[in-house]
Amino acid sequence: MGKIKTKIKASFGEIVVEGETPKEILELLRSMPQNFIEEVNSIVSTKLVPPAEAQLKGIVEFTTEGPVITTRQKITHYEAIALVLYAMENKTSTASQISRLLESSGIKAMVPARLNEMTKRGMVFKPDPSRPEFKLTIQGEKWVEEEVIPKLTSQ
Question: What is the pTM of this model?
């Protein structure tokens, strides 16, 4: 009897399981760790996603103070705040630090008010309500990656 192949489609591609018999394939599948697909997906996505610095080249400059927006294109205050958060380590920062970085970028914005509106829109959240730090949500990160960065790099 020939080999039997089973292809499992995943978000990152395919996993092929091969065996001599259907029973062997089932045993192989049962022996896989429960979160195998999620772990492989996580590893593949971190290896394939370019680092923030490469994605933001020409848009944000990384300084000792923090990320400073350098693009000459018009951007909204929401986009500016999201870009700064996106470029920050852990995608987290305080309103006062964001304000300082935007000032260094030549952008005047009412950061606390914008952060409040962005919280209502599901773009940012406070990981710890007792601390003044804001963090981009997954939705906020996707917005930056899929809309803001492409808009700024396409022109």
Answer: 0.67
